[in-house]
Amino acid sequence: MANTHGTQDQQPTLSRTLGLGSVVIFGIAWVTPLIALATIGIIVQLSNGTAPTAYLVTLAAMLFTAWSYGRMASVHHQTAGSAYTYVGKEIGPRLGFLTGWLILLDYFFIPLVVWLIGAAYLAQHFPAIPMSIWIIGFIVLTTVLNIIGIKVTVRANILLVAFQLLVIAIFIALSLSYYAGADTGASLLTPFFNEHTTSAAIAAAAAVAAYSFIGFDGLTLLTEETRRPERTIPKAMMIVVLFFGVLFVSVAWCAQLIHPGSSFNNTDSAALELASMIGGNLFAAFLLAGLVVGQFACGLAIQAGASRLLFTMGRDGALPRALAYVSPQQRTPVVSIMLIGLTGLAGIFLDVTTSASFINFGAFGAFTLVNISVIVHWWRHRPQQGAVGLLSWVILPLAGAVIDFYLLLSLESNATLVGSIWLLIGLVWLAVLTRGFRQPPPRLSLDEAEQTG
């Protein structure tokens, strides 16, 4: 491979500064601990009062997919790119491009949804201040922090994650205390199974609960800024998924202990209803503060990760090359970060339901293809022989692919429509790049990626 060190036209590259702890913190901030309470009412209602069981089913599905991402991250550890890289390398560059395009639908608009939710909470309690002001405030602050540098982002995330975990710890403690002193009619096993439990209800709730885990895959986008990524990224992904699995099940279990059944006065604000029940208005206000902090931390992490995907695709020529510009001073992809921020301004004209309805299409599509990529890699290269190899590289990824594809088919019609339109636009852009599919799309630049240290 050509060595470009010392050339005058070499652009600054990303710096490897992140260890396992930093990557795990980043993943926890990305998924957001308080999403467990923010969506608890919906999961409880859909599952007929057995939310922890729904989360257990979802945990199994996400572990399969995290395993496959880990397999691919260990093989392709030289460069960032997530599902875009893996599918492109294993199945083909055209499908890889379309996978990157699909995951862009997820990454590109999740920050918008996150900032919009946070602004909605604040606007409800401070009606004198227009919601657009809160949205702009979220965008400006997170964009500035991400431009300053990835290490600053990690430090900020540590504080924000710690506060969220404190809120959850207090919620669990107050819930157990409330349950011990009140006759709620629930046994310790009632949250997992009751007379209204059905497989259809559990499946419906699990499909929605999967949204709570989306974001763990974004850790692969930090490959070029992580020390020993072939080991660090797979470990971090499994740690993050297991952490959230335990957290979500625990929170759901406590919620169903103090509130058996599936009805709330307002499903969308069920967390505040539960908080008032166990801790009064004071804890409800504290929980609200935690939810806003959680949205900020999530937006901070997701904007950073999404900009890295734009950086990689821009560097390869799959998207405009201006997106690959790296600040010589801060060593961050400034143009990509700012584009994500500007996209968030669309939240001023959208509501939460509309903006959130279509992002799962890209996530589940990419998850399915990554699982398939692991199987293809094993078929071609046989990295591991025997029963262990078959289990690691075929059976587990196949289970993940089947479940993820089922979740993709379970999306509502509006999400499928928007996702299909986005995919069609991607096909048109791919046709332009490849001159009518006669040429392969731009390939990854491994030379540059290997010189980031």
UniProtKB/TrEMBL annotation:
UniProt keyword terms in alphabetical order: Cell membrane, Membrane, Transmembrane, Transmembrane helix
GO cellular component, one term: plasma membrane
MF-aspect GO terms: transmembrane transporter activity
Domain of life according to the entry: Bacteria
Location of this chain's protein in the cell: Cell membrane
Gene3D superfamilies documented for this protein: Amino acid/polyamine transporter I
Pfam families: AA_permease_2
Source organism of this protein record: Kushneria phosphatilytica
Coiled coil region boundaries: none
Protein's recorded name: APC family permease
Membrane topology note: Multi-pass membrane protein
